User: What shape does this take?
Amino acid sequence: MEGSRFDEWFFGLPPELMSALGTVLGFALLGGLSAGQQNALGNFLMLAAQILETSASQEQLLQGQEQSRRLDRMQRSLDELRSELDELKTLFTPPPLQ
Assistant: This one.
């Protein structure tokens, strides 16, 4: 499979099927490996998973911070516009009729 087709297939799997595939792969990797080899391979795979998790969580954190900054800027702009609108209302509000 091509990279993009595989990506679409793999990341489009339902959670239950992805879990089942992980289970099958885990049991398939057991065959013929000694306890030490299983331990080494398991630790290696967990390290790779931790690196992926750390990278993804940092990316999410940075995206959240940027979104928060954008929302803050938008709120300040909205507050400024409301203030300007209030000023315009006072300038152009006709005096009360007597």
Q: What stands out?
A: The mean pLDDT is 92. Residues 24 and 94 are 78 Å apart (CA to CA). The chain is about 85% helix and 0% strand. The longest helix spans residues 35-92.
